[in-house]
Write a structure and sequence with these properties.
With about 625 residues, the chain is an alpha/beta fold. About 60% of the residues lie in helices and about 10% in strands. A hairpin with a 2-residue loop joins β1 (about 365-375) and β2 (about 380-390).
Length: about 625
């Protein structure tokens, strides 16, 4: 099982945190049925694993029973032949038990890995179908945790928790039966002592759990200090503000507290072992005493071998009893983990194909918004009653202040979100009726946040069209005015761009992103702040590439820089989610509205102010 906060293993993990206690899942028949539905495809393997657990548990106690025969018939009976026979038999049974244990471990691992394989695939497919809203409202770390730690915890539950319950229960029952068959008085005496073993285990475990939590919190604090001060930015800040001594003292104090906690934790374990070793020695002594009284005073039908067997069987009971007493915690954590996973599985897929999706014979790229409204949360509407038409081969530009809803508008076209009111049509059909794959294949968006995979330039281009030829790749790069840069690289198209394209400049990344969209050959191209990351020279080059595309293709342009959209057939001015103005540049520039204000801010003032070094516009 995955350990709770502050857990590092050991018996400390046998206690629930306050959060876990407050959020204990409700275990219902429906939940259990759902959990075991993942086991049903592997019924044969599960049955075989159960047989292995049963055989391993039974054969595991046989050497203890054979010890009595070795003592009575071999040693005390002075029978060398029987002594050798029972020793060899005991070794053979031990080897068989271990071999069965290996088979059991393999089966457990095989079943657990295949179930987690199924769950990971199901989760990944499910998350891929979730709308953009899911990824913008949920914490990315939480999503990754469900995909990794939680599902990996399922493997631990199946291979450890479920197996532990079965194995310990069978071992305990087998040992009890064997003890009572030998002598019910000694068996009862031994069972009475078992709780004495568990009391110090739980108390010491709780102490260590508390210390481990504090120690882990200290470790987290130390890691936080190291992450802050050992990074390039952090070190620069420390040096510039002369805070070396302050950071050293801060680190030293936490490190000193961590050292003290580690010593206390270590000593708590040491005292625990002293108590446990003492109590485990008491059990056999009691059995020897009671057995001796029965043999000496009451002439009971007991042998030295019988007492030895009972002592050995009692020792085998300690572990299973203690594990089963703590199994409740593992069970609760297991159910909580399954509940978290199922919570994600039960999330409704907002964006999916209609029952009979439409696939038009050809795509013109025409777009029509009719009284469109949209909100991320019911109480805050982002777009209000938006209506406009974009005819095939025409271009429309959307401008407005930051936060006015421009990017939200274009995200409604490929159904990254669905409208909450009105309708969006593409090529004359409501996008909610179109086949999703067809729709998104015919809409190309150059986003303002350029994302490149950690691979080569070729890999990033072929991601959109794996079958594209070398000539098509070069053509797309030329149209995006980036081919000269690529061919001058030592490895050309096989140049590695780094994680998120960090080995390239902002302008280079953006132009490769544009080439990638052009390679897709969509019927509608949307440029969402496509030149926002470019310097003045790169902007002019890419603008020269965009202009013929805008003239020849159905296109939508979003930009803060008005120079980007001057040649659009129509300009929509968006403010607070409402289209406040519309027309051509010539019509809007002297209208005295928002567009005039944007124009005067960027051009009148910019005439006297040089561009920034990197040419970045206001966002």
């Amino acid at each position: 099982m995955p350990q709770g906060p502050g857990m590092r293993g050991g018996r400390g993990g046998a206690y629930l945190t306050e959060e876990e206690q407050a959020q204990r899942p409700k275990v219902t028949k429906a939940l259990l049925v759902r959990i075991f539905s993942y086991l049903s495809p592997y019924k044969k393997q599960l049955l075989l694993a159960f047989l292995c657990i049963l055989l391993s548990s039974v054969t595991g106690i046989l050497p203890s029973i054979l010890t009595g025969r070795i003592i009575d018939e071999g040693l005390i009976g002075r029978n060398l032949k029987m002594l050798i026979f029972f020793i060899v038999l005991s070794l053979a049974v031990t080897a068989l038990s271990n071999l069965i244990g290996v088979a059991q471990s393999y089966l457990n691992a095989w079943i657990a890995q295949h179930i987690t394989f199924d769950m990971r695939n199901q989760m990944f497919r499910h998350l891929q179908q979730m709308s953009q809203r899911f990824f913008t409202t949920n914490n990315q770390g939480d999503i990754i945790t469900r995909m990794t730690s939680d599902i990996d915890g399922v493997r631990m539950v199946i291979s450890n928790t479920f197996t532990s319950i079965l194995s310990n229960t069978i071992t305990l029952i087998t040992a009890l039966v064997a003890m009572y068959r030998k002598n019910w008085i000694l068996a009862t005496a031994g069972i009475i002592l078992v709780p004495l073993f568990t009391i110090p285990t739980r108390r010491a475990g709780k102490t260590r759990w508390s210390l481990t939590r504090e120690s882990q919190e200290c470790s987290d604090e130390i890691n936080g200090i190291l992450n802050e001060t050992m990074s390039v930015s952090g070190q620069t800040l420390v040096k510039l503000f002369c805070r070396e001594d302050y950071e050293y003292d801060r680190y030293k104090k936490v490190n000193e507290r961590m050292t003290g906690l580690n010593i206390r934790e270590s000593m708590a374990g040491r005292w625990f072992m002293v108590v446990i070793n003492t109590i485990t020695s008491v059990g056999p002594m009691v059995l020897y005493l009671v057995g001796g009284l029965l043999m000496i005073r009451y002439d009971a039908d007991l042998t030295v071998g019988d007492i030895t067997v009972l002592v050995a069987l009692l020792g085998r009971m300690y572990g299973p009893v203690n594990s089963l007493l703590n199994i409740q915690v593992d069970w609760i954590r297991s159910m909580a983990m399954f509940t978290r996973i199922f919570d994600y599985f039960d999330m409704k897929i907002e964006i999916e194909n209609s029952e009979h999706p439409v696939i038009p014979k050809e795509a013109s790229g025409a777009v029509s918004f009719r009284n469109v409204s949209f909100s991320y949360e019911p109480e805050r509407e982002i777009l209000h009653n938006i209506s406009f038409d974009l005819e095939p081969g025409r271009s429309v530009a959307i401008v407005g202040p930051s936060g006015s809803g421009k990017t939200t508008m274009i995200n409604l076209i490929p159904r990254l979100y669905d409208v909450t009111g009105g309708s969006v049509a593409f090529c004359g059909t409501d996008v909610r009726s179109l086949d999703l794959t067809w729709l998104r294949s015919n809409v190309g968006i150059v986003t303002q946040d350029t994302y490149l995979f950690n691979g080569t330039i070729r890999d990033n281009l072929l991601y959109v069209r794996p079958e594209a030829t070398e000539a098509e790749l070069i053509d797309a790069l030329e149209k995006a005015n980036i081919y000269d840069f690529v061919k001058n690289q030592e490895l050309g198209l096989d140049t590695v761009v780094g994680n998120r394209g960090l080995k390239l400049s902002g302008g280079e990344k953006q132009r490769i992103s544009i080439a990638r969209v052009l390679l897709k050959k969509p019927s509608l191209i949307i440029f969402d702040e496509a030149t926002s990351a470019l310097d003045s020279i790169s902007e002019s080059r890419i603008q020269a590439a965009i202009d013929p595309l805008v003239a020849a293709t159905t296109s939508i342009l979003i930009a803060h820089r008005l120079s980007t959209i001057l040649k659009a057939d129509e300009i929509l001015v968006l403010k607070d989610g409402v289209i406040t103005e519309r027309g051509t540049h010539r019509e809007l520039v002297g209208a005295g509205g928002v567009y005039t204000e944007l124009y005067e801010t960027q051009f009148s003032v910019a005439d006297d102010i040089p561009d920034d070094d990197d040419g970045r516009g206001e966002k």
